[in-house]
Amino acid sequence: MTFEGLRRQFEVLRRPSLVRRLVILAAGWSLAVLVVTALVLAMLFQQAAIKRFDQGLAELIDNLTAGTTIDEKAEILAPALTDLRALRAYSGKYWQISEPVNGVLKSRVRSRSLWDSELKTPPDLALRLAADPGKPIFYDTRGPLNEPLRAMATRAELPGGKAPVVFMAAEDRSPVDRDIRNFVTATALAFLLLGVGMVAAVVIQVRVGLTPLFALRHEVAYVRRGKRERIEGAYPTELKPLADELNALMAHNQEVVERQRTHVGNLAHALKTPLSVMLAESQAQPGPLAEVVTRQSEAMRQQVDHHLRRARAAARTQGSGERTSVADVLDELSRTLERIFQDKGVTIDWDAEDDLYFLGERQDLLELAGNAMENASKWCKSRVRVRTEVISPERLRLSVEDDGPGLTPEEREAAIQRGARLDESAPGSGLGLNIIDELARAYGGSLTLAQARLGGLAVILELPRAEA
Questions:
Q1: Are 452 and 406 in contact (CB under 8 A)?
Q2: How far apart are alpha carbons 62 and 154 in whole angstroms?
Q3: Which among 330, 318, 445, 449 has a CA at the least distance from the CA of 394?
Q4: How far apart are CA 168 and CA 118, in angstroms?
Q5: Rounded CA gap, 164 and 155, in Å?
Q6: Contact at 8 Å (CB) between 346 and 337?
Q7: Tens digit of pLDDT for each residue in 112-171?
Q8: Phi and psi angles of residue 396, each rounded to the nearest 5 degrees, phi first
Q9: Which of 43, 228, 283, 359 might form a disulfide with 464, Cβ 3.0–4.6 angstroms?
């Protein structure tokens, strides 16, 4: 991806998004709950495993306590067999009987599995046992082979003994630690898959839940593009008032536009009659004053027609929704202009797809394309070429070229000024290109003049396009 593409993606991500906000909130809470649940499960499993492990140590100490005696020489005699693993050297299961001497535990008897070593104890173990006699103390330590051990110690009085003894049992905790790790790993993987599934479910849920909102957006776009006159879909209770308000707003706007259009039309028609009277009177009484009146009256009538046309075009662009086939209009104009300029031998070559539509009224496209094609027919030697193309889903381009003398860059700039006439010998009011420019801009389009490939002038229009 290019740098420009990355920049656009970053700009898109920075925009506020309702979908992104809902997904992040829902997924965030769900993932937080999953993580907490996984940690709690892992902790509970570890506690249960350690508790079960400690029960085995307690049973070993119970057996050791029950079988230990003191002989007549005050020697401690441990039972011969407490656990088979305690008989094998460094097997991982150990026991030891010690006596507390000045706060330090001295080993008296130990299992064969310890061989020549002793169980390591915390420095304060003797004091802790003395502080709470009979209460077992569990702790972690290291064995003869430096393996991790789980150990239990308890203090007891033996019959015939002069001093209490401390029974200690320990076992390699590697297996239970391995079981805990395996459980935590399996739980993490399971919850990871569950989290991915929940995030996907949240995304689907949000997209499905907001489907009516997306549908409303598309329907508003259809109204703007002229494919529908109003919003008609069945929407949920939460969106129904919004759809009704939009319909009411569009109806109100249409009513205001129609009212303004009517007022402008009434004003124009009201002025036309006095102008016609003035023209008729001035033509009936020739003279210098009559010429001035005639010239100014003609200018006033052109101004009235011009502003009436602009008002009508502006009104049509306010969501009238009408669309016009470009091919039909070009075919009609070509036939008409070829008949008008048949003495000149003008041929018009036009090309447009059947499914290409102008988003506007037929009369306006006739005026736009007709003025451009008429100018081209007027100034060409014999050839006029009209081409159309789709610029985007919402825009189309219409270009009219001729093989006439063309215009210089300065003349092209002056040609679109209102009332400009570059050649006073040619008939016309000089408003043709200016009318095209203003009408195109009224539709949100544009007019560009350029050098035609045929050698003459190229009139290029960009206009709104309606979907087929």
A1: yes
A2: 10
A3: 445
A4: 11
A5: 7
A6: yes
A7: 999 889 999 999 998 999 888 889 999 999 999 999 999 999 999 888 878 899 999 999
A8: -135, 160
A9: 359
Tell if the pTM clears 0.85, that is, is over it: no
Q: Residue 402 CA to chain centroid, in angstroms? A: 47
Q: What is the pLDDT of residues 156-167, one digit of tens each?
A: 988 887 889 999
3-state helix/strand/coil string of the chain: CCHHHHHHHHHHHHCCCHHHHHHHHHHHHHHHHHHHHHHHHHHHHHHHHHHHHHHHHHHHHHHHHHHCEECCCCCEECCCCCCHHHHCCCCCEEEEEEEEECCEEEEEEECHHHCCCCCCCCCCHHHHHHHCCCCCEEEEEECCCCCEEEEEEEEECCCCCCCCEEEEEEEECHHHHHHHHHHHHHHHHHHHHHHHHHHHHHHHHHHHHCHHHHHHHHHHHHHHHCCCCCCCCCCCCCCHHHHHHHHHHHHHHHHHHHHHHHHHHHHHHHHHHHHHHHHHHHHHCCCHHHHHHHHHHHHHHHHHHHHHHHHHHHHHCCCCCCCEEHHHHHHHHHHHHHHHCCCCCCEEEEECCCCCEECCCHHHHHHHHHHHHHHHHHHCCCEEEEEEEEEECCEEEEEEEECCCCCCHHHHHHHCCCCCCCCCCCCCCCCHHHHHHHHHHHCCCEEEEEECCCCCEEEEEEEEEECC
